Amino acid sequence: MSPESTAPKGSASKPAAAGSAATGDGGRQPATIRYLDRADMVETFADSITGLIFDGQTLRIEFGVTRFDDVKPNTAITGRRYPACRLVLPPAAAVDLINRMQQIAAALTQAGVVKARGAEAPKAG
Fold first, then answer.
1. Cα(104)–Cα(98) distance, integer angstroms
2. By CB atoms within 10 Å of each CB, which of 8, 34, 49, 74 scores lowest?
3. pTM of the model
4. Could you state, in order of their start, the residue ranges of all structural domains in the chain?
5. Cα-only R_g, the chain
6. CB under 8 Å to 44, separation ≥6 — which residues?
């Protein structure tokens, strides 16, 4: 397996944080890692997160997909949720994911797609 970064498509390549400050290697220059896209990579659809666990060494995220049963008149809608993908990240990648998701959340808030926490009007009592 090659050491290429798995940065998102269209992102700029950045030097990796593998320099002397990070590894104590006595002044070696940081590695430069280029992102190479794989157009043939399989994409997985998920409509829910069914599990999220950090065990101290890895962040494990399980994504799920919901499949509904046939709808019948005068009956409750039923369905099942199946695991679609399990993603396991080391702590550094988990922190990067958290930071990027916070950036996305800020952009969605600024665009008015989601409301900021604490921005709700007080309830009349």
1. 10
2. 74
3. 0.64
4. 13-42, 46-110
5. 21
6. 63, 84, 85
